[in-house]
Amino acid sequence: MDRSLEVVESVGERYELDADTALRELGDGRYLAMVSERWEVGPGPNGGYLAALLLRAALEESSLPDPLTMTVHYLSRPETTSCEIEARALRVGRGHAFYRLELVQSGEVRCAALVTLGRLREAGSHDFQPDAPSVPGPESSSALLRVGGEVPLWERVEQRVARAEDAFFLRSEPGEAKTGGWTRLADGRPTDALAVAVFLDCWPPAVFGRTLEPDPAGAPTIEYTVHWRHRPGSDWCHASFETRAYTGGYVDEQGALFDKEGRLVAESRQLARYGGGPRP
Fold this sequence. Notes:
two-stranded antiparallel ribbon, globular, 14-stranded antiparallel beta sheet, Porin, 16 strands, mainly beta, disordered N terminus
């Protein structure tokens, strides 16, 4: 039997994200895993899913429970097959632990990440945060239409928007490079730090709202950073994204994730390659 199949068949996880980030320990910070086709978007696996796969290895290595920040660089597109994840501790202290992670296939590093783990504190009297979006809750929002036919990633998440301008393909004319709405995992899995990494990279790029005509190649991510700010208090979370600049063939995207109680759960930043629209 292929060793990659052993990983999947031995898991028996109830939820897809748990099954598809399952790890088999090999020793010395090395893990065998399977890159699942269930999280593909466009020509390859979703970057948020790959981040969650790497993050799970860091959490396995550390006794500290909470990711605080993670930056992933996507060197080349992983294939939907077995991989090896290497987690190396750079420094482990009482309050923080720092790890370097690599996702390797056929001897080639496909993704490299730096992760800092610690313990998120309870809210204090001097805490402050940005205001949560003023939108109706997920129960009164509309189901998000699927983009471009069957996309495996968007079968894994449930997404709802309150306004047509929140999704580029519902707009009647081009507008601001903004998008987002309510998000949860479609199979009912509770939202945790792994799900947060997916939620902040599972929406169509905000830049599509500028022309309403996406580039056929999408916007492949070069670098993806997440800052976790609070443990989510609800399965539904509201994700909002904004692009501030598209120059030199590269586009940025800033994201924020709030739970239903209005608490800031996480923030994100991405840099992606972008062609600017449909080809002539």
